[in-house]
C-alpha cells in the first residue's frame, strides 16, 4: 500500500496552529512515510510556526464571514468560490487521502473542496462552542474529535486537546528545580506565574502591577510574562525589577513555566485550560471580556471540579489579587487538591488519538472501495 497523503488545515492563531502541529507530529511518529502538507493563509501565525516545526505549508485566500450587511458580504460568494478552487488545486496536487481540519478561515473552503473530491475529512474542535468552519465540516466528516465533552457536533467524540509532547509528558515535580533555575526563581519560593499569552493582556498586567506591594509583603514571588512589546517599566526605558518580581516578554516553551509555578493566572483559551489540566496545575482563569463567551465555557470544567478559580476581567483588580492570591498560595492542602482535581480531568494523548483517526481515514481512501488499490500518484 502506498504512503498516505494527508493535508492539514488550520491557522490564524496559535490556538489553531498548535494542535495542528501536535497532530502532525503524532502522524509523523506513527507513520514516518506519510506525506504531510499544512494549509493556511498568508497572514496567519502558521507562516512562521509551521515551517519552523519542519512541515510544508501551502496557502489559500483568507475568507472571513462578514458579521454585518456590507460590500464584503456581497463579495463573499466570489471570494469563497475562489478559495475553494485554490484548496481543490492543493488537494489534487497532493493527491490527498485525508484532510484534517482544526478550524479557522482556511477550513471551510478546504472542507468543501475535499467533499467534492470524496476525500475523507477528520476534524478537531478545540472550544466548547464550535467555530463556524467546523460546524459546517462536521456534517460530512468521517470523524470529529473534541477537546471538551460539552461540545456539540455531529459524530463528535471526546479526545482532549492535542498538545506538544513536552507538555503532555511533563512531570511538574521532577522538572520544578531546573525550571525555576531557568527563570532565576528560588527553589522554595511561593511562585505566582501570570501570563496573558504571547501578545499579553493589558488588564491583567495593570492589575498585577498594582498588587505587587501586597504580594511582596505576603512573601509571594511573581513571574510575569508581559507579552511581546509590553515590558513593564519603573521609569521610561527602565524595566521594573524587584526581589520578588521577575518579568519576561515571552516564554519559548510553556512547560518550564508550568513546572516552575505554584499557581497560574491566565486567560482561558482552550489550549491553556487543557494544558493546565494535563499537567495538574492550580489556576485562576480570567476569560477575555469580549467575544461569544467561549473562554468562560472552556474554563468551566476545571472550575466546577475545584481545580481552578474563574474571575471576570473587570473583577480582576489589584485589590482582588492582594486579598485572594496570598491566602491561596500559602494553603498547601488546597493547592494540592486543586492540582489533583486538574490532573484527574487532564488528557495527555489527544495527539495520538487524532493521528489514529486521520490515518484510518487515509488508509481506507488509499485502499479504495472493497479494498482495491488506490493506485500510484
TrEMBL record:
Residues 6-145 form the Glycosyltransferase family 28 N-terminal domain. It comes from the Bacteria. Its main location: membrane. InterPro entries: GlcNAc_MurG, Glyco_trans_28_C, GlycoTrans_28_N. Keywords: Cell cycle, Cell division, Cell membrane, Cell shape, Cell wall biogenesis/degradation, Glycosyltransferase, Membrane, Peptidoglycan synthesis, Transferase. The keyword Coiled coil does not apply. Pfam families: Glyco_tran_28_C (PF04101), Glyco_transf_28 (PF03033). UDP-N-acetyl-alpha-D-glucosamine binds at residues 13-15, 127, 198, 295. It is an enzyme of class 2 (transferase). It is found in: Cell membrane. One of its GO terms (molecular function) is undecaprenyldiphospho-muramoylpentapeptide beta-N-acetylglucosaminyltransferase activity. NCBIfam families: murG. Cell wall formation. Catalyzes the transfer of a GlcNAc subunit on undecaprenyl-pyrophosphoryl-MurNAc-pentapeptide (lipid intermediate I) to form undecaprenyl-pyrophosphoryl-MurNAc-(pentapeptide)GlcNAc (lipid intermediate II). Belongs to the glycosyltransferase 28 family. MurG subfamily. This is UDP-N-acetylglucosamine--N-acetylmuramyl-(pentapeptide) pyrophosphoryl-undecaprenol N-acetylglucosamine transferase. It comes from Tersicoccus phoenicis.
